[in-house]
Amino acid sequence: MVGLHYLKHAKGLSDEEVVAQWVENAYWQLFCGEECFQHAFPIDPSSMTRWRNRLRSEGLEKLLEQTIVSGLKTKVLKRTSLQRLNVDTTVQEKAVSFPTDAKLYHNLRIKLVREAKVQGVELRQTYTRKSKQSLVMQSRYAHARQMKRSRREVRKLKTYLGRVTRDIGRKISGKTELEKQFAPLLEMGHRLLKQKRTDSKKLYSLHAPEVECIAKGKAHKRYEFGCKVSIATTSKDNFVVGAQALHGNPYDGHTLNEAIEQAERLGDFVTQSIFVDRGYRGHNYEGEAKVHLARQGIRKVKPSLRRWLKRRSAIEPVIGHMKNDGHLGRNYLLGQEGDRINAILCGAGHNIRKLLRAFLLFLFWRLFKNRFQPIRA
Fold this sequence. Notes:
6-stranded mixed β-sheet; about 10% strand; alpha/beta
């Protein structure tokens, strides 16, 4: 099970894909400890979800810890490299569509009507046809830049949702069992109807209410919907020694203490220097290591320290690889605990890719060394 999770996040596959490819790949079976080639699925793909939920993020930190231990044993990661760390934050996007008020009103009305049909609650009117028509027209008006007409259709959708919500509330009033069944949907309905454009904690997704809107100042993507993730890597070897998801969109500087504490706990070391960008000004770090901000007095420092300050940006391609090659770019796991689990496993997957690459280079080195070895008389 551990091997399958390493392979999944190293290759960026789903649970179903990694199990299917495991049957076809003899190298993957050897990696997972098999001695003979297997022709059947090792597990049902759904078992990986249940296994992750049992271990939770606290237990899955062991997978990241073991990649650090393996890196030290194989000398891919040097013990001296742990003295200097790069720390940065990024956004782990959730698998949600771009939220708009019109889609949220329409989809929540559909969920309420569907649940009422299952529970046998007869509604006065469902607005199935009218709501769908308003959603289509709202999109067309917005595309034609007729925003006044588009906003009118959004108000219609909000009215339809409000009528269905109040109708269900009247029909189930005093019925304890029905109130319990409808409680999550009605709570989201009231929250969605009350929220305004300028509210800070808005509802952006129905199946993932924990999603937050985060602006990182990117020119090509103004807003990202997910949660913030803190990544800690070694300055020299680019080995991930810490990864954790942080909810509530905290200030970058206020996440540094937790990031260093996790890294030192998993790697069993004490760091001496921490290199961060200027987003960490006013940080809350209370440890003994010295925190160096990028581009802060770079002309006045020693040349040796200036070299490490320039290495601060090496964490950016690491985050890029974790997003493109792993699952950090789009998280499909459920809830806040799923965010924390995915962040940790993405760090483990990056380390596994580095270990496999180092093993491949070692094989090439041995091959060329034996081939071009001088013949002795």
